[in-house]
Amino acid sequence: MSDLSTLDRARTERAPTDRAARIQPPSWRDSRLLVGVLLVLASIALGSYLVARADDSVPMYAAAGPLTPGQSLDESAVVRVDVRLADGVAGYLPADEPLPAEGVVLREVRSGELVPLSAVGTTDDAALSQVTIAVDATSAAALTSGTVVDVFVNLPVAGSVRDEYAGPERLLERVTVAAVDTSGRGLGGSGAGTAVRIMVPVEQVPDLIAAVDLQAKVTVVPVPGAVTRSGG
Fold this sequence. Notes:
The chain is of the alpha+beta class. It has helices at residues 2-22, 31-55, 123-126, 137-140, 205-213, and strands spanning 57-63, 78-84, 104-105, 120-121, 128-135, 148-156, 165-181, 194-201, 217-222.
């Protein structure tokens, strides 16, 4: 009996010591504590980086709709967007400066795309002239202002006693329709067709006029997949 009492007393005396050992605060040398501190510091650093990145953006101009060669580049043609510096924006039109005075679109830009600096110039850079031609009403049915087209001419055979033609040849490639007029009052028009005003490279204007003077049949064909700008 005395042995049991002695054993119980020893357990009772040792119990507080065991509990104290279990609730002792961790030492700074505890690896789990060090890992926890490192995770907290890493989270703070990552959060600071993400916040800094969120503010690391610049305003740029993007196309409000499809832009076509010869189109004036004004406030209605573009929208402002914020772009991160890391996205490589050096070659695009910044929105923290006024639009170029009398700016003209030199090549196609799709809706929503950033406007490349290389796609913006002056009327002299564009080197385009507006020429109105009369085309068959069927050929013009799918055309609207801003449609990108190829222009084919079919010249009559010289000296032919019948209405014989040499076959269509593409004279102009990827030019833009500026306007469509059903009055038919264009080069070579008799009033029965559709007058289409197109933006023609200056150096090709004489070729187009010469083809019309030779009574060529003119057909305008929309370019598949090309951007189309609505409006006049």
